[in-house]
Amino acid sequence: MDNEDPALPETTEGEAWYDAEIAPALANLATRCHERGMSFIAAVEYQPGDRGATYYLTKDAGTAMSMLHICAQTVPNVDSYIINLKRWAKLKSRQEKGGS
Fold it and tell me: d(Cα 64, Cα 11) in Å, to the nearest integer?
């Protein structure tokens, strides 16, 4: 598929199908789960190295869900994952102690 902007990467057929068919359905499921107080994370690899993700976490999402969320945002950069996980942990600790 061709993009009109040469600065943007080409959109593959798999990505276009995912964006049109799957992402909206996942967004609907994420919203339904969130309305029931459930956190939602879905990650899809539509071709090797190319991923899409949908997430909607509740305010009190557990540690494992927060870790998955950070991973989905930073993969495949493990350094970025560790740095962001550390930031999240510090923020969570301050919040639990009543700070900002």
Answer: 32
Q: Which tokens in the block code for residue 48?
A: 């090797």
Structure tokens at 39: 């956190």
What backbone phi and psi angles, to 5 degrees, belong to 64? -60, -40
Residue 1 has pLDDT above 80, yes or no: no
What is the number of alpha carbons within 13 Å of residue 60 lying toward its C-beta? 3
As a whole number of angstroms, the distance between CA 11 and CA 53 comes to 16
For the entire predicted model, the pTM comes to 0.75
* Start-to-end CA span in the chain (Å): 46
The rounded distance, in Å, linking the Cα atoms of 92 and 84 is 12
In terms of Cα–Cα distance, which of 71, 72, 75, 98 is closest to 85?
71
